[in-house]
Amino acid sequence: MRFFNSKKMQRLELLAPAKNLELGKIAIDHGADAVYIGANRFGARESASNSINDIEKLVKYAHRYYAKVYVTENTIFYENELKQARQLATDVFNAGCDALIIQDMSLLEMDLPPIPLFASTQANNQTLEQVRFLESAGFDRVILARELSLKQITEIANNTNIELEFFVHGALCVSYSGQCYMSCHLTGRSANRGCCAQPCRSTYDLIDKNGKMLVKNKHLLSMKDLNLSAHLEDLIKAGISSFKIEGRLKDAGYVKNTVAYYRKRLDGFLNANPNYGKTSSGFVTLKFEPNVDLSFSRGFTNYFIDGNRKKTATTDTAKSIGEETGTVKHVAQNYFTADTEKSLQNGDGICFFDKNGKLCGTRINTVVDEKIFPMSMENLKQGTKIFRNSNSVFERLMKQQTAFRKIEAEIKFTCNSEKIILQAEDEDKNAITFEIPQTGDIAQNEELAVNGIIKNLSKGDSIFSFDVKICSSQVLFYPISVINGWRHKVVEMLLAERIKNYHRKKSVINKNSILLYKKNLDYTANIANSLSAEFYKKHGVQTIQSAFEIDNSDEKKILMFSKYCIRYELGLCRRGYNEDLFLLNNKQKFRVSFDCKKCEMQIIK
Asked: Dihedral angle at the C-alpha atoms of 312, 158, 265, 29, nearest 10 degrees?
């Protein structure tokens, strides 16, 4: 059994999404060191809300493995919601949660319980100055903007002492997080209030200042999904300690597959680097081979992690098209054949683009030799590229139990003429001793008796994986039912000892007046209540503009700030040429402005 010296080890955390209690448990079973979950209000995913009772159940489950539970309270609050926001923070703390992920600085002006605060990526954590300020304000962790490069992350890590978290997988917003007001402008549904209508996934026409049509009916603002699995070691060296998977609206199959995939990738690094370890306990045994290509994605990008600009949009569709499987070779009346790199199966879902660029899809009824019989033959033509967006075999597998997680532990069995002593210790050095009066009989076959004790004490019906050591020279015979009773008692005692010794970090905000790095804040600071304004005033801010959600009357306000650039994506980027373009959608017209010096794009009313 391998015991870790936590004082000498740098700990790395795999952080997984939990839509609800069930998916939170699934994430932990598949190797998550921590999960993040929304409560009944104020989460940035309004449709992924949970009761405090369910969160408390998840906490109890997670803490058995020394895994952590973070709650998202990362929307902005209106004035009449401040008491509710404070009460939620208190309820979350009382439920045993390990941290609160927040955006609204009003919470730092409240009398909160000693729960650690993490600065949500919604707080627009792009710069060293911002991270330094958040550290001085009392945050325990900062979740960095997804747009940062390794060089920028390294600079922040080298000049701060705060924990840094970074997204490594999942859906991407086209805008800097917390800096998109397009949904609120169009529908009244604010991204900063957890109910984004996702206008970035819609189709748009693009025209120039003269009205010339450049692109028609394309998903010009829809990003591919992030996949930094090949850059985990780079991120570790840059200073990231928590690796976050996006997906609080995703299903169980997605959670199982992505968490298991990143667990394997991180474990590969940990096994080769003994100075690093996990933040939780136990090991995971998988019943499948994880492959993120088989879960929902819009195609993958590593975004700006290497500092290079690249094409990152999926303009043809905002849906998942899955893995490319081949090209249609022959079309008959009710079947087709294809040159396929990956064999298609009965029940698979396939999709393809027709001659007009429209995404079409169907399901395969039967595959007989080379003949593929789909439910519909409509729009299938020779030469069409086929994608599999639903793998029936994999999806059936994902509905079964696909992993179990165990904590390494050791049982030492000792006996004498008076008593039996069972000493158990787990991988985190939690230890118990269980003594019972000697009740055994002389063993007719001592080897068989020893094997019976080892076999029945090490049965795998608990969260522990026991290594049993016999520490007596003579062993008596005991019935299986008796040994099973000992094991159940040892499990009960050791689990209780683990929970008793679980260390939940507590953090108290020491309020101060350290100056913010700027004196004037406009609507992009997302200040929607008096306490948030008071916080910034104490930190030297002189003028404060209300949040967009409070006042959006100014027609010149920028609706979106983005590192993504339509010009570059379409091959229209030319040095020194940054003339505005225009997006059209359902009679709505938006001006697209380009800041070539910063290499950024803005969308304006």
From this structure: -100
